[in-house]
Write a sequence for this structure.
């Protein structure tokens, strides 16, 4: 009986194999949510009968790892995520194939940022900015003012009301962090990041956790990519979204994987996403992304932002090469000094705010000094600007094949950051408490 | 019917028969061993191997050193232990009073408590977690009310607390069940002799009754600890990443399949599971407490005084409400259009269900396929191993049983990692599909994970079949195979069915291994589908709808199988007297 | 049905280090109703299972109808067995149970129906064909188990303690039924029991086993009257065993027991020296002292130490010298018998004394 079963299994396997090959396939690795992928899948398949779109849904970093690790005979076809720096990472590892844009009317740049890869390895498919989203009821209930700029979120009044994700888990968060770093500079940027993070109630596991939390009122404010905010408003949630001035409009890209199994089909799909019909799909309120084809905007719904008319004023000229060069450093640094040390960081901030509140009533010079020191301890990055530009240092993080020695080195470094951060935060709490006791 | 010549031809069988097994038995055992080797032993050993070796193949402990150097990893390890232990503790807090009430008092609320025992188990924790956020989170229903009335905010769903709360609420039935059975097995004479010597009331319970029930409790506690330690999905959904299971998953998926830290985390998880199981058997072994003696009766029950009844029923209702909360929350969410910062949703719709049926009915088919294959294989293998164990003297059959049962100590995420690592260079024969992307792998992962439970079920039911049933058939001319199909399997049918249903239902809500192994959305089973849905704004509602559908099907399945088994049992009760 | 001879040659069987059967040599004649009798642990059930094919001797052969069946698996031996717990399958009706063996032989539907009906008729339970085993009484279950085996017309019929699960009255009734059935069918039947009364009452011949060794084979009469050894003597029926020595006296041989006195024994074939004799309780007569004794008996003096009223007879314990004898006296209406403490004369009939090998 078992022999029969085994034969049956082999037959089924063979059948499945054949069945899978009977249809034309295109395999897409993407971090986009279901609404978007379903819409494109349906539209593409109805326009191209006999074709099957296979969606592999992965968070951006997992997608990068997946493409890197896929065996040569079975590479996926298309990579489609929000973050251009993820594309840079793949491009540097020669994992992308050159493609030509089918849509010649797509402008070369948005602001100062090239929409398509100048080297020709990926194309811009949609545009997105980064901004702040909040829940109006939450703010009303907690009597909080509406924020406008990133810098606003560093204020004590927002303590424990903000939320963001981590750059290691979310391509869009990585971009947001990079935007701030590039806009304000390494030191000041990290300072701001630390202060905002300190005001966060949670560092979410996936970028979606932020808009989700804001939507259902768990968090008051969130750092999000624009389409989350726009889609939420369009869905009827009591939320609002705003673009701060320190923002960049950056393309969401689509590219073909080098050695893709179904290269022709990949091209077909990519061309579809850049066709007027494919671009118009982005207007769906549940999707709410900005098309790259300017001509399509005349069909946009009322009030839909138009990046080409200059209403959104991005201050930052995003340098994606810079971003790529320090991709893993930024992720790791954020994780080990913020994400995994969040409790301590928040404790430090709370102590400092409490002390400052006290101090406001009873000023004290010594206490003020202590607090300045406390703030410096809590909100200064453990890696300075110089180090961040050091080539060897950066190379260490780029290694993908980990020998035991390399792993040891890396983990040693991460461990150092982590414990230093913890020490700093704890010390900050001490100092703040001291300052508070002085202000009696 | 002289068969002189045939005797020679069968001499091979007959010779083997003197050793009490046949060639067929050996072949079957070999096939099973092969399956377990390929889909359990090798993946697990691969994980352990990678954790202990360098890229060049030399043995090293440096990965472990690196692991323990990382504060995050140490913290995750510690947190996992804390979450596991606290979940057991909170579960016990719920379960203990209930067990006490059932065993000490004459109680009409028994039905209520039986319901309590089943409800949590039909909804997997990660599905309920989202609903729990909406009910108990910072701006959840409860805290909104508390904030309005008392100005307080209970951080039930913050960080680790959230995980503990969700897990405890889901797993306390394990403890309740084990404790109740253990209490019911205590001979009345134990208690009466203590009373004779002057002990009574709570003191009696504490000093005599509960210690005697301890072994049963420990079994339940170990199981809960194990399952909580293993759970990847719930922490992820709740945004808690500093837990060992979550870290193993995150490191392998976002850093790479070669990241050694992920493997070290896996090895530690396996070690912790094994330790928990071994520890509980150790504790139980020294205390083979006499269960009911012949002719003994169980503990005496008293009538409830009115104030006692009030407390008892009060507690039961309280726990019942808590237990129902994720179900209620999920139901509300599935019908909601907007639920933001309000106690209950403000706008309702049926659209979520429509979306789910339109878009995701294929996931139901996927789940049915994977779980059907897994459950089918489980009862096949389970019956075969049970038969080999109890009816033959095949050498190595104990080892086979041991290996199959050892799967219970392997966390799902570890098995997933093992599969990815072991099969990454293989392709499906005749087709151009890499093995790790092929959906059958998912079914095999389920098979291996559910096998221990199906096996126990099959063994228990074969033990109920007296060997004379088979011998009678043999004297009447039925050979090995005919006896098995006409006599043994039909008599085991109840246990086989129970094993099938349990395997199927528990595999249907499994996410730990699924989350590692599912790649393409079109291959997704329902559990993964729910997880995917919960990742987008517009997906919460449909995700909840899918969750409700899944839970309803599981509940229905459990109920139907219970009824079928119950009626079968009634029919076969008499044959117990024939032993 | 055919009548076949069953032979055991040199069967030895051990489970691990325990020797369960030793040097079994036995021939069972065709058509015989043969009993294997012995206490628990004697190996009798094991021997039965050897014929059925469920126990495997390390040495020796079993021949059925002249053919060595040692290498044949149970399902090809065509030997029917009724198990102690009947082993009726609860998931099948009575009809399906009885038809099972016939279905295994791939007979035609019509043939199966006919033979199943016949088998049920033979045990008189045709009307219960649609019931399930759980709905039958113990006696009915036993008969169905029997019908199931008879249906296939086995060469040999094996019964493993067939009556031990029935209550006393039913047991007696069923054993005559069993015998009648066997006589009707003529099939060689071997049944196992620990109850010597059962074995003696219905078997043609009996083999008594103890600790894996056949102690004696013979007809019930032979076993009762001529036990070959100590064990048989005490196992089959109640008996008095006396040690002493044989001496010549008065032109014949007498047995002198320790503090017993002398008892005449039949004929002079016995050799002088230490010896053991056996006397059945009912072969001893009690008389009041002073009554004229029956000269054919040897008379001794004794005292009644205990009495048990058993209805048909009274069982006395009588102390003669230092020996306790069990004496059965038939009871008649109106006769009070002897009370404990009474002095009595104990008369032993030399013709009823059995000399055991010393």
């Amino acid at each position: 009986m078992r022999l029969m079963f085994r034969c049956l299994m082999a037959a089924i396997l063979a059948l499945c194999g054949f069945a899978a090959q009977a249809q034309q396939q295109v395999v897409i690795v993407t971090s986009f949510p279901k609404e978007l992928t379903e819409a494109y899948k349906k539209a593409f398949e109805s326009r191209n009968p006999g074709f099957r779109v296979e969606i592999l849904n992965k968070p951006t970093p997992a997608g990068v790892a997946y493409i890197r690790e896929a065996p040569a005979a079975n590479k996926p076809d298309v990579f489609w995520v929000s973050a251009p720096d993820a594309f840079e990472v793949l491009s540097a590892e020669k994992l992308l194939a050159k493609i030509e844009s089918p849509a010649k009317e797509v402008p070369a740049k948005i602001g100062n940022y090239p929409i398509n890869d100048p080297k020709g390895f990926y194309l811009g498919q949609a545009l997105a900015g980064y901004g702040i989203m909040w829940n109006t009821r939450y703010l009303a209930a907690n009597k909080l003012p509406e924020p406008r700029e990133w810098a606003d979120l560093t204020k004590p009044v927002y303590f424990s009301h903000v939320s963001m994700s981590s750059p290691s888990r979310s391509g869009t968060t990585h971009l947001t962090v990079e935007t701030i770093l590039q806009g304000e500079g390494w030191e000041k940027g990290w300072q701001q990041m630390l202060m905002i993070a300190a005001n966060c109630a949670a560092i979410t596991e996936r970028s979606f956790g932020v808009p989700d939390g804001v939507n259902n009122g768990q968090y008051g404010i969130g750092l999000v990519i624009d389409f989350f905010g726009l889609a939420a408003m369009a869905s009827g949630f009591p939320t609002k979204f705003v673009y701060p001035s320190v923002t960049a409009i950056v393309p969401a890209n689509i590219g073909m994987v080098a050695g893709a199994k179904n290269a022709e089909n990949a091209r077909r799909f990519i061309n579809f996403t850049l066709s007027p019909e494919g671009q118009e799909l982005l207007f769906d309120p549940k999707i709410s992304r900005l098309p790259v084809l300017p001509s399509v905007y005349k069909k946009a719904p009322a009030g839909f932002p138009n990046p080409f008319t200059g209403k959104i004023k991005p201050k930052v000229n995003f340098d994606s090469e810079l971003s790529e060069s320090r991709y893993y450093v930024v992720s790791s640094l954020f994780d080990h000094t913020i994400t995994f040390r969040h409790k301590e960081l928040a404790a430090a901030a709370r102590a400092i705010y409490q002390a400052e509140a006290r101090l406001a009533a009873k000023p004290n010079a010594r206490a003020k000094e202590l607090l300045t020191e406390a703030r410096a301890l809590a909100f200064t990055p453990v890696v300075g600007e110089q180090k961040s530009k050091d080539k060897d240092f950066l190379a260490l993080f780029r290694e993908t094949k980990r020998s035991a020695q390399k792993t040891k080195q890396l983990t040693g470094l991460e461990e150092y950051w982590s414990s230093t951060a913890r020490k700093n935060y704890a010390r900050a709490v001490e100092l703040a408490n001291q300052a508070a006791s002085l202000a009696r | 019917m002289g068969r002189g010549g045939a005797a020679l031809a069968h001499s091979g069988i007959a010779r083997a028969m003197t050793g009490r097994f046949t060639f067929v038995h050996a072949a079957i055992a070999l096939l099973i061993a092969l399956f377990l080797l390929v889909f359990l032993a090798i993946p697990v050993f691969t994980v352990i191997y990678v954790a202990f070796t360098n890229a060049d193949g030399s043995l090293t402990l440096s990965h472990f050193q690196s692991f323990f150097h990382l504060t995050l990893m140490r913290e995750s390890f510690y947190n996992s232990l804390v979450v596991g232990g606290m979940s057991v503790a909170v579960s016990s807090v719920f379960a203990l009073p209930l067990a006490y009430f059932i065993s000490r008092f004459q109680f009409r609320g028994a039905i209520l408590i039986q319901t309590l025992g089943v409800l949590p188990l039909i909804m997997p924790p990660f599905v309920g977690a989202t609903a729990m956020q909406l009910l108990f989170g910072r701006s959840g229903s409860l805290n909104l009310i508390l904030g309005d009335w008392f100005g307080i905010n209970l951080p039930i769903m913050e960080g680790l607390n959230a995980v503990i709360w969700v897990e405890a609420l889901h797993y306390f039935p394990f403890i309740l069940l084990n404790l109740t059975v253990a209490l019911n097995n205590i001979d009345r004479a134990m208690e009466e002799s203590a009373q004779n010597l002057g002990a009574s009331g709570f003191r009696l319970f504490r000093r005599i009754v509960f210690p005697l029930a301890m072994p049963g409790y420990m079994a339940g506690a170990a199981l809960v600890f194990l399952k909580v330690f293993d759970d990847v999905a719930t922490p992820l959904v709740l945004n808690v990443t500093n837990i060992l299971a979550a870290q193993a998953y995150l490191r392998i998926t976002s850093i790479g399949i070669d990241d050694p830290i992920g493997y070290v985390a896996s090895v530690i998880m396996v070690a912790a599971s094994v330790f928990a199981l071994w520890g509980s058997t150790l504790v139980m072994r020294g205390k083979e407490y006499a269960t009911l003696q012949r002719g003994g009766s169980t503990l005496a029950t008293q009538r409830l005084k009115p104030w006692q009844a009030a407390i008892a029923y009060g507690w039961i209702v309280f726990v019942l409400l808590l237990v129902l909360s994720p179900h209620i929350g999920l139901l509300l969410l599935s019908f909601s259009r907007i639920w933001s910062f309000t106690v209950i949703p403000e706008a309702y719709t049926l659209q979520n269900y429509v979306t789910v049926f339109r878009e995701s009915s294929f996931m139901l088919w996927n789940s049915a396929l994977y779980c059907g294959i897994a459950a089918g294989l489980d009862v096949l293998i389970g019956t075969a191993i049970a038969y080999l164990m109890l009816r033959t003297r095949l050498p190595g059959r104990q080892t086979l049983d041991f290996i199959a049962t050892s799967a219970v100590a392997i966390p799902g995420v570890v098995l997933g990692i093992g599969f990815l690592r072991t099969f990454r260079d293989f392709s499906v024969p005749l087709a151009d599909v890499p093995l790790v992307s092929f959906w059958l792998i998912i079914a095999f992962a389920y098979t291996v994970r559910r096998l221990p439970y199906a096996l126990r079920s099959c063994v228990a039911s074969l033990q109920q079949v007296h060997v004379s049933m088979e011998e009678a058939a043999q004297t009447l001319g039925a050979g090995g195979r005919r006896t098995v199909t006409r006599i043994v399997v039909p008599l085991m049918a109840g246990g086989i069915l129970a094993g099938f249903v349990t395997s199927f239902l528990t595999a249907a809500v499994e996410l730990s291994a699924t989350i590692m192994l599912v790649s393409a959305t079109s291959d997704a089973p329902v559990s993964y589908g729910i997880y995917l849905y919960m990742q987008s704004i517009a997906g919460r509602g449909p995700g909840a709808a899918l969750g409700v559908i899944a839970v309803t099907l599981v509940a229905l399945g459990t109920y139907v199988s219970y009824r079928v088994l119950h009626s079968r049992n009634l029919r076969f009760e008499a044959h117990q007297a024939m032993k | 049905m055919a009548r076949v001879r069953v032979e055991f040659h040199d069967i030895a069987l051990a489970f691990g280090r325990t020797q369960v059967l030793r040097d079994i040599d036995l021939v069972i004649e065709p058509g015989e109703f043969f009993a294997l009798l012995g206490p628990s642990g004697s190996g009798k059930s094991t021997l039965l299972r050897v014929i059925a094919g469920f126990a495997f001797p390390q040495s020796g052969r079993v021949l059925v109808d002249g053919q060595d069946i040692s290498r044949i698996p149970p399902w090809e031996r065509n030997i029917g067995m009724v198990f102690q717990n009947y082993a009726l399958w609860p998931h099948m009706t009575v009809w399906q149970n009885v038809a099972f063996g016939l279905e295994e032989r791939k007979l035609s539907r019509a043939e199966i129906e006919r033979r199943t009906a016949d088998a049920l008729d033979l045990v008189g339970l045709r009307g219960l064909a649609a019931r399930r085993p759980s709905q039958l009484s113990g006696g009915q279950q036993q008969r169905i188990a029997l019908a199931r085996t008879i249906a296939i017309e086995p060469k040999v019929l094996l019964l493993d303690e067939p009556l031990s699960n029935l209550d006393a009255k039913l047991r007696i009734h069923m054993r005559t039924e069993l015998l009648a059935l066997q006589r009707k069918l003529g099939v060689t039947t071997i049944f196992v029991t620990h109850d010597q009364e059962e074995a003696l009452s219905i078997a043609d011949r009996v083999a008594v086993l103890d600790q894996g060794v056949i102690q004696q084979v013979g007809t019930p009469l032979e076993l009762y009257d001529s036990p070959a050894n100590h064990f048989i003597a005490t196992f089959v029926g109640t008996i008095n065993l006396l040690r002493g020595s044989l001496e010549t006296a008065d032109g014949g041989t007498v047995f002198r027991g320790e503090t017993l006195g002398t008892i005449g024994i039949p004929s002079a074939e016995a050799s002088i020296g230490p010896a053991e004799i056996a006397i059945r309780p009912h072969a001893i007569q009690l008389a009041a002292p002073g009554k004229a004794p029956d000269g054919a008996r040897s008379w001794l003096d004794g005292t009644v130490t205990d009495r048990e009223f058993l209805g048909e007879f009274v069982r006395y314990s009588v102390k003669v010298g230092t020996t306790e004898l069990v004496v059965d006296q038939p009871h008649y209406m109106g006769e009070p018998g002897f009370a404990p403490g009474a002095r009595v004369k104990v008369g032993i009939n030399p013709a009823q004394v059995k000399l055991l090998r010393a």
